[in-house]
Amino acid sequence: MIDSHCHLADVVFAADLEAVVERAQVAGLTGALVVLAAGDDAEEAQAGRVLELWEGVRFAIGVHPHAAQAFADAPQRAAAVVRAQFARMPLARAVGEIGLDYHYDFSPRDVQQAVFRAQVRLARELGRPLVIHTREAEDDTIAILTDEGRGDVRGVLHCFTGTPSLARAALDLGLYVSVAGILTFPRASDLRETIRAVPLERLLLETDSPFLAPVPLRGKRNEPAYVGRVAEAVASLCGIGLAEVVDRTSANFHTLFTP
Q: What's the confidence (pLDDT) of residue 150?
């Protein structure tokens, strides 16, 4: 089993990182994709600690839309920061998380779009997949992926909470869809119906930890060990065995991120 999106390099895990990794391994996880904020020295240092404890981890590096405002004067500089960090980290496997967030608008939308475009172009240059964050920005997200991806971009819509039309558009672009603990929330019936229609061979599992702990752990700090709860929810939703979900989503992860 693999957690395809977690933030183990976040400061909230610094004090008990070893125990968190141990719980993940006891829970049967063989690997995880650890997402790093590009240019964050503290996260990069903790990524080294994570790797010392868990050789199965790989990394994604990107400028989140919330942080795009720091590159308002020169959006291409965001790509340069990511490129430089890739060069320092041979186990970096994806550009992300990147994208658009119109819910909070912590960065101006035109800046978000420019920084997103620059990083999609970088991913094409590096031959690496994307880890995509999109919230209340479905049309612009797909438009940029279509324009800049030019049919030659791979990736995943992480922590999917979107509409059926977004799921279809993503699948048409050859992208994967990743589900997190939100799938277990009582009010997520619309999401469950959308995910039911996603082919298992295009699905990934994640925690997005430390956020979004699944039921019955909601409200607690999330961690990779809990990704099994998401796998169980998918198995129940699709009417298939847990082992099939774990095997298929793990294979999907290796196909996309070629660890």
A: 81
